[in-house]
Design a protein that fits this description.
Elements lengths: L6 H12 L3 H11 L5 H13 L8 E7 L5 H15 L4 E7 L25 E7 L11 H11 L2 E7 L3 H9 L2 E6 L5 H8 L7 E4 L5 H18 L10 E4 L8 H10 L9 H24 L1 H4 L5 H17 L1
Parallel strand pairs: 1-4, 1-5, 2-3, 2-4, 5-6, 6-7
Helix pairs in contact: 1-2, 1-3, 4-9, 10-12
The structure holds guanosine-5'-triphosphate (GTP) and magnesium ion.
Amino acid sequence: MRRIPGTADLSSLISEAGNGEKFALAKLISEIEREDSGEFRKALFQNLKDLGFSGEDSKTIGFTGTPGAGKSSLIGALSFEFLKKSQKKLSIVAIDPSSNVSGGSILGDRTRVSLPARENRIYFRSQASQLELGGVNPHTYHVIRLLRHFFDYVFIETVGIGQNEIEVSKFADFSFLILQPLGGDQVQFMKSGIMEVPDAFILNKCDEVALANSSYYTLVTSLEFLKDTLKGKSLPKIFRTSVVNKSGIDELLDFILDFNVPKVKNNETNLQIQKWIKNEYGKFGLKVFFAHSEKFKKFSEFEEFETAFLDIIQSLLKD
Ligand SMILES: Nc1nc2c(ncn2[C@@H]2O[C@H](COP(=O)(O)OP(=O)(O)OP(=O)(O)O)[C@@H](O)[C@H]2O)c(=O)[nH]1
Ligand SMILES: [Mg+2]
């Protein structure tokens, strides 16, 4: 039988993870990713609170884009600059499509940047997706929530455009859509993503100058058409980068480091609890949830919602 870490173990794992020790972090994440991790998760987040770790000031940044757009290379280049420029801590979660679990190969071939393995300010984790195209898996939310307690920034890489992009933007405080020159990405985006515009675009591979320029203007024009659907919001920014030439990376990183999370985005716990209820109890569950919504108002942590909801279900079953 497997042993769930006891309270003492848990506290020491948490403080080791707090120092960026990779084994402890990996252990905590593996426990969360187990099928029956409910009890462990409850104890873990309670312990984190008791030990004074709070995820509140951490920022989660999503990087989504079609396969091969250069997401990993770009995140690699950004991380490298991050370590030089900032004293803060960064973790990266790459969500791999199930068909292609690459064992965490974050860096593209030609653009490989080596991150110092002993550096405790950076942590990389790859997570299998349950969807064809890198959508998030049921544990992603909790894994990110955990990492937020230890790291100032959490970067998430997902493959996709349209629906998948929307999934990750629910966790992210800010989400980028990465496009490559004339990849047909823009057209796809126009088809599938009209309703949900990312917070900003990154046009990568701008070392392919002619193609990149024409793509840039296509994108600008496409966005002009979207103006009406943005309901008064300003048009999303477009960053132009090249990992090969190292151009635009600094500017992008400065933007990320200066970015302040708008408070309105902090509704994600509620969204996640609804998603969990729908998965476990279907429409009936959601009906129960909304019928008792007053009771849930005072909660902010996922586990508080979860416990209260299960109590209600228990009492319904007794009647
Ligand atoms: N010319 C050029 N090639 C790049 C650039 N950035 C990445 N690449 C190349 O594009 C290819 C894909 O890069 P990745 O970083 O693996 O792209 P990705 O979006 O993470 O790919 P998946 O995770 O497989 O979807 C690799 O061969 C990279 O070397 C760039 O700025 N310019
Ligand atoms: Mg990648």
